[in-house]
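Q: My labmate handed me this sequence with no annotations at all. I'd like to see what the chain might look like in three dimensions before we decide whether it's worth expressing. Could you predict it?
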Amino acid sequence: MRYSKELVIGLTTVATVIVFTWGYNFLKGKNLFKAKRDYYAFYEHVHGLEVGQPVTINGYKIGQVTEITFDVSFGGPLLVGFHISKPIDFSKDTKVEIYDMDIMGAKGLQLEPGISEVLAVSGDTLQGDIQISLTEQVTKQFVPIRDGTEKLMNVLDSTLRSITILTEKASYLIEVNHQGITSAVGNIDTLSEVLNAQRKDFEAILGNMKSFSKDLADSDVSQTISQVDETMNNLDLVLADINSGKGSLGKLIKDGKLYMEMSESMSQLELLLEDLRERPRRYVHFSLFGRKDSPADTIH
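A: Here is what I predict for the chain of 300 residues:
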């Protein structure tokens, strides 16, 4: 049985359209030969999520992203559509999170089931959410380290500037006082030479000090201290006797009558000496031929 050319062309065209449509939808994540349930979620930013990326629950792939469009009726957020090809039911308060599938930053969707008893049905719009990415986590951990490093670099930079300024000032001072420093170094050298020349004298002094220390260590210091203690005790006893009026010195100090008598005797002795100075002939008789005593010189 022969077919007309027109029929063959028509059948080929229909088959091509069918295959093309199926392939196109398959590439978009849609499988026309499988039962599917479509769901939606709104996001302010999809962070690089693309059509065809997988939808998972607990790491298990249950569908694919089918579309990402702007929804002007809701003020411009992005509407992400996805279908579920696995027979899995979840509640209406389930969250749909955009997450990092790998360290390279590829994005996917994952379902976080809620606690509501009302199940989601095909065509429902679920709550969209964004999980913090690995890059953001690393960035948050790195921010304190970066801030600390910047502070440390600032401190090091300030320290290096201070060292540079100090070095410049030191160089200037050395240059200005070069002659004085040279003279001081010369004086130090001279002093060193003098000390070296007097080294024997220092050694002799140290030897004498060592000998004196040895003699002092060998001497009976304790006996000397005991003798001093005994002398001090005896002195205390003498002072106590004087204080109590014992002995001649004690009576002299304590007895007022004796003091008065001694004062009177000293006064008479002073009068006698004065009279002896004024009238020595009364007390000394010296003459080669002898003499007569005048009435004025007679001792009454």
